[in-house]
Amino acid sequence: MSNQPRHIAIIMDGNGRWAETQGKSRTYGHERGAESVRAITTYCAAHSDIDRLTLYAFSTENWKRPKIEVEFLMKLLERYLKSERATYLEGNIRFEPIGDLSIFSKSLRTVIEDVQKATAHCNSLVQCLALNYGGRDEIVRAANTLCAKGPLTVESLGDALDCPHDVDLLIRTGGDHRLSNFRLWQAAYAELFFTKTLWPEFSTDELESIIKKFKTVERRFGGLN
Questions:
Q1: 205 and 175 Cβ atoms separated by less than 8 Å
Q2: Dihedral in degrees, nearest 10, Cα atoms 46, 52, 57, 58
């Protein structure tokens, strides 16, 4: 099997804690985190061996956060997508959202749909943003879609997910060692890397270092090489 990580997924953790170390508000950390998203996405788009980058932007559990922070995140997301449209097109990057988008405001859903349509032809990289996403929720929604069609199989359920593509390399920043309900199905055989680096400080150099380590791993997928 290839030791190239074709699909990289990242749990972007640590925005709020990073802001606190700077004596700033948590919202400032989220703004700086958006800059890291741009840098990492641009890096991946420049490497033809990387096909897909999935970023955990907002989970189904994040609604539990203070209302003022959630409202800021929704406005930041809308602003980010509007401003990044040119970056997507210049980098030949296709934007794809995953998750249950129905709960978002009409304004935000419109922006999401517009950017998705505008970049549908791009093919250097797919940047997949997980928005109001939870791994368990994704599996339940897929199962509900298929339950009236007969017995489920691994293949049929996998194909019905928001994004059926298996993850090769899953990275979590911020120091915690858990998946937090992210890509549970697709990460079945992903290589997991955890770093203490807080997301606003996660650099392309560190990503490159992790990819180099990934390439040294013998991936057997339950068999023998």
A1: no
A2: 170
User: What CA–CA distance (Å, rounded) separates 125 from 97?
Assistant: 14
Catalytic positions are 13, 62
> pLDDT tens digits, residue range 130-161?
999 999 999 999 999 898 787 889 999 999 99
| Rounded Cα distance, 20 and 116, in Å | 34
Q: Which residue is listed with tokens 């990580």? A: 5
Predicted model pTM: 0.94
Phi/psi of residue 97, nearest 5 degrees? -90, 150
Backbone angles phi, psi at 164, to 5 degrees: -80, -5
Query: Is residue 214 a contact partner of residue 2, using CB atoms and an 8 Å limit?
Result: no
By the 10 Å C-beta count (0-12 exposed, 13-18 middle, 19+ buried), 162 is classed as: buried
The CA distance from 114 to 57, in Å, is 18
